[in-house]
Task: inverse folding
């Protein structure tokens, strides 16, 4: 696969106008306030035996959108004392929280990690899930990007982004966590959730946003036919009368608009061969990101981006942002 998008010399300055509704901030303020009023956050942390001795894990359950319980894992170093910095980690499309031992790298480095399950996902080939979604409504193409897309109020990612905000709040409630030392992290859909949690959930120290999904969405559908954006293309190919209404809904969830509201330090990554989350869509969010930021570029990689090499960047960034464990 050759590079198909803009050359890097143009990507670094690619900053398209934001397609943002006038009531963006009010929509999210009202959404989160309504959920707080109707479904106050409750969190439980229950120890589980994973077979590991240097990392301890707790099974997390917290109140998500609509009062629905959302699962997660909370990992921490064995023998940790109060004052831990915590990374809230979000998972990619069709994935779930996985098995408990699969997401312990940052806990091995001395930090706490809360891994949020994805509602309704986790039935694919990687990272199994344990959280359902009780609010599916309306016609949709198989997948999640078109679920409830007729309005922002019914859209799947309204629920999912609210869960992400609450995951950060849940992590802050653990007895060993320093509530002021919080960082969000994720790749692809997880990158979208990382942006959403950092933008909507109160101040965090930093955000890791690897190859983010749901950014510059209309543009992405015009230059790639890869899933998941192809799900949206198929839906709009059938629902020709709903094109503008769908993109209006998506504007409340587009990472370009969320990025403009994050003042924390950011670490992004991009694969210049990525047909799933095209480089220009990634750079659109990066160049609108309001906080201090850095981009790691993988010229000969696609959506897998840096993998273990990017893990090294994560370890560096977390230490710089949260301080030594």
Result:
């Amino acid at each position: 696969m050759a590079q198909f998008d803009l050359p890097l010399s143009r990507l670094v300055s690619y900053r398209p106008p934001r397609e943002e509704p006038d009531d963006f901030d009010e929509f999210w303020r009202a959404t989160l306030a309504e959920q707080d009023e109707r479904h106050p956050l409750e969190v439980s942390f229950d120890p589980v035996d994973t077979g590991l001795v240097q990392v301890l894990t707790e099974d997390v359950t917290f109140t998500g959108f609509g009062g629905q319980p959302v699962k997660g894992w909370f990992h921490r170093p064995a023998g940790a004392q109060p004052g831990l910095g915590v990374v809230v980690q979000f998972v990619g499309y069709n994935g779930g929280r996985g098995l408990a031992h699969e997401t312990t790298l940052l806990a091995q480095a001395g930090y706490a990690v809360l891994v949020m399950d994805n509602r309704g996902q986790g039935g694919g080939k990687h990272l199994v899930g344990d959280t359902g979604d009780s609010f599916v409504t309306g016609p949709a193409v198989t997948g999640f990007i078109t679920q409830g897309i007729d309005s922002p109020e019914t859209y799947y990612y309204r629920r999912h982004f609210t869960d992400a905000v609450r995951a950060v709040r849940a992590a802050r409630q653990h007895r060993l966590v320093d509530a002021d030392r919080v960082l969000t992290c994720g790749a692809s859909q997880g990158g979208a959730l990382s942006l959403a949690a950092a933008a909507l959930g109160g101040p965090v120290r930093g955000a890791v946003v690897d190859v983010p999904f749901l950014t510059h969405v209309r543009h992405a559908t015009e230059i790639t036919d890869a899933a998941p954006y192809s799900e949206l293309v198929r839906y709009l190919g059938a629902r020709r009368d709903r094109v503008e209404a769908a993109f209006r809904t998506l504007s409340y969830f587009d990472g370009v608009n969320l990025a403009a509201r994050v003042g924390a330090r950011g670490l992004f990554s991009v694969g210049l061969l990525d047909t799933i989350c095209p480089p220009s869509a990634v750079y659109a969010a990066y160049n609108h990101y309001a906080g201090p930021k850095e981009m790691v570029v993988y010229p000969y990689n696609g959506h897998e981006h840096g993998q273990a090499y990017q893990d090294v960047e994560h370890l560096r960034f977390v230490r710089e942002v949260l301080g030594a464990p």
The first strand starts at residue 43 and ends at 48. The domain at 8-319 is CATH 3.40.50.1820 (Rossmann fold).
